[in-house]
Specification:
By secondary structure, the protein is of the alpha+beta class. The protein contains 1 helix and 9 strands; from the N terminus they run H-E-E-E-E-E-E-E-E-E. The strands form 2 sheets. Strands 1-7-5-2-3 form a 5-stranded mixed sheet, with no helix packed on it.
């Protein structure tokens, strides 16, 4: 019971953070921003996602859409949903609910979360249209796709 309460509380907290961030954030220039709450993200520019990565110690920000939104859960050694479709400028949030570390690493190298601990999150803002395939570099059979239109 305690674990399900924690999971529900975490999901509610992430959703609230996503909604609040969408309401109060605007940028003069498009940028791809990546942040893991457990470790700083690489500061090199993201090749396909256009922009730069920025570390953050706060909860990630993205808005949830009606069709499933932009939240991806890492559970039971898989990404769920494994495929998401979002408009340009959307921030996608991955939350690790497994008890082991995982990564969210673009196949083309444009973004990399580094190790995400249990209950931690990673965000990536997609500023250009395209299909971005990704995997867990620790567990390469874990794969997913973000389609940006």
């Amino acid at each position: 019971m305690h674990r399900s309460f924690q999971a529900g509380f975490l999901a509610t907290l992430v959703a609230l953070s996503l909604v609040l961030a969408a309401c109060g954030s605007s940028s003069a220039s498009p940028a791809a921003t990546a942040a893991a709450t457990t470790a700083p993200a690489a500061s090199a520019p993201a090749a396909s996602a256009v922009g730069s990565s920025t570390p953050s110690s706060s909860a990630p920000a993205a808005s949830l859409g009606a069709g499933g939104g932009n939240a991806v859960t890492i559970a039971n050694f898989s990404f769920g949903p494994s495929t998401v479709e979002v408009p340009v400028g959307t921030t996608v949030t991955w939350t690790n609910t497994d008890s082991t570390n995982h990564t969210v690493t673009a196949d083309d190298g444009s973004f990399d979360s580094k190790a995400i601990s249990s209950s931690q999150t990673f965000t990536q803002t997609f500023s250009t249209a395209g299909t971005f395939k990704y995997h867990c570099s620790i567990h390469p059979t874990m794969t997913g796709t973000v389609t940006v239109k």
